Every structure is written in structure tokens, then in C-alpha cells.
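User: C-alpha cells for this complex, please. No commentary.
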Amino acid sequence: MNDPFDVATVVIFSALALMALMGIAVLLLIVVHQRRIRHQTDVVGMRLQHAKAMHQVEREVEGQTLAEVGIELHDNVGQLLTSLHLEVQTLLESDEPPANAQGMERTLDRAISELRRLSKSLSTDHLRKRPLVDLLAEECQRLHRPGKREVVLMANMKDATVTPDQHVVFFRIFQEAMNNALKHARASRITVTLVRNGALRMAIQDNGIGYDIGTLKGGGQGLTNIRRRATLIGATCTLLSEPGTGTTVIVSQ
Amino acid sequence: MVLATIVEIAGTIMTRRGHNNVMLYNLYWLVEFVLLVYIARSIIAKPPVWSAIAIPAFLLLWASEFVLVWGRYQLVIYSVMVGAFLLVGIYLALLWELVNTWVGPLHRSTTFWLCLAVLLYFGGAAPVLGSVNYFIGTDARLAQQLFWVVRGLCVLKFLLMAVMFSRMTAPTQPTTSP
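Assistant:
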């Protein structure tokens, strides 16, 4: 192969072969890249699915636990109170009823009706049977004390648009926020707003003592519960508060 | 690209004035190699281990060959071939790293176009440049014709680099660690 033309042919073919080799290498790397991206997408999808399943299980376990507590309260403590009520009634029907027997009966009546209400509110099935607006309205009415404490509900939505998960979680968050407002914030006015404007949005605003969000370590058990419950259904939870200006809890999904 | 243009202009002026411009290209080859290695090393997170030995070895080879061809007006063909394959290796390693870290389509990455330019140019040009001295000695006309292959590859290289520069203004995606 002494002819320069033959050598030139070999050189050109070598150049073309090397370029083709480079091209193939680049193509293979593109394929590897696409596979990696697909794999990553699959992994993210699986993780999301797993997280969803875990949240679903967590919701179910929580619902079942609360329902069982409700049943236990109704069947055991409820029965005991009913027996006690019967004994008080027997006392009242006796020839010489004790002076405070009537007061005892009234207190027992209240205790039994509170226990029934609590037992019902712990049952998820019971909650789902009734529209969310009705549940909130009933609770607001129960907690409203004319002249002492004002609890107002403002709602402009049709309950048919609420999913079963939203139904339960929004109600539990409402209960927790009300508990915080009454127990810790010592609020005298609580305004609950429920609107469906694309997203379902609930705001619980009180005029209590408020707190400094920055210094509240861990957010307190109640607030942690609110956030955790919101996370369970992928809702966003915003807490607005400053000392002396009350607190607003906003949940949106 | 600016440097390449300056070298090309200088090379043309030298030829027209009857001077041999091979030594200019010998020097430019070293500058181009160092620049491309510097760019690759500034992008790559984990440079290939072999490059730590291969790059100094190449520099030594280039210096020896440069001294050897001094006065003979020949291209440092061994340095050109070894350097070309070194660059191909380094840019393949860079592309491999990009493939494993880049999120989104590869064509949106500036590094991808730089790698493509280097791989295709140096992959194709190495055999031609490596045989230049032989052809100049045997058939100068054929050598001139073969240079058109290198010119064509140069155009391809700068076109790919132009695409790379155009990608610099396009929105880029961040890379993530696996």
C-alpha cells in the first residue's frame, strides 16, 4: 500500500469510521439518559403512590381507632351513666328523695347527651352521613353562648362538592382549631368560614391571646395535629397569629 | 472561536508572505488542547483518574516532538493524534457524567453540544492530521485535498459550538445528584 491514493482512502475511511463510532457512542449515551429519566420518573411515581397508600392507611387506622373509642364510650361509660340515671330516678320516686337528687338528674342528663354527641362525633361513618356544613353549623351552635362567647359560621357552598376525605379531615381540623381557640386562646369570638371557590377553603379565626409563631417550638400538639391531618389529604394549612391579635387557621384543598 | 479565527488569519498572512505556518499550528494545537481540557475539568465533577497521568504525559510528548520538528516545519502528528484521543476520552467521560446527572432533554444542555463538537471533530480529524506529514512528503496536492476534510470537520465543529452558544440563552434545567 505505497500508493498515496490508497493511503488517502484508508485515512478517509478511518476518519469516517471513527466519526461513526463517536456518533454511535453519543446515541448510546442518549439512550442511557432517556432510560435513566424514565426510571427516575417511575421511582417518583412509585414513591408518590406509596405515600398516598400510607396516608390512606393512616386515615383508615385513625378513623377506626376513633370509631372504636366512640363505641366504647357509648357502650361502657354510656351504660354506666344510664344505670346511674335509673338509680337517681328511683331515688326521686322514693318517699323521701334527697334534696340534690333533681340537680343530680339534670347533670346526668347533660352528661349522657354530651357522651352520645361525643361518641357520634368520633365515628367517621356518622360524620360522612351528614353534610359538612350541617356538622359545622351544629358544632358552632353548640359552642355559642349568647353574651359570653360568639361562634359564627359563614358558608357559601354546596356540600355535594366535598370528597369523603375532605369531609372527615376538615371536620377534625375544625374540632382541633375550636379546641385550641377555647382552651388555650380563651377566645370570646370565633368566626368559621367555609367556601368552595375552585378549592375547598376553611378558615377559623379567633380573637384570643394569639401567639408568636416564630417562638412556638414544635407548634404545640394541637397545631401539629392540624398540620398532620392537612398533609394526609394533601391540603395546605396556614397559621396566622401574633400575640394579642388572635389566631387564624386556614386549610385549603 | 475568537482564538481560532486569529490563528487562521495569521496563518493565511504567513502563507501569503511566503512563510511556513506549521509551527504556528503546532503552538495553537497545544493552546487548543489546554483550553479544551480546562473547560472539561471546570465542568466535570469527577475527572477520569487516568487523565491525571495522561495530560502531563501528553504535554511532555508535545514538548519533545516540538523540539524534534523544530526547523523541519512538520506538524507534531504524534501529539495531535494522542491529544485528539485524550480529548475524546475526557469528553466521553464528561458526556457520561452529563447523562447521569442532567434532568430533562439532553439537547437543552450546552455541555452536550460542546461534547458533540469535540467528539466528532477530534474523532474524525485525528487520522487525517496524523497522516499529514506523510502526504506532504509524497503528494502535496493530495495533502491539500485531504485538508478539505479537516476544513469540513472544522465547520461542523463551529456549527455545533454555535448551537451550544445559542443554548446558553435558552432556559436551562438544573442538574440533580442521583
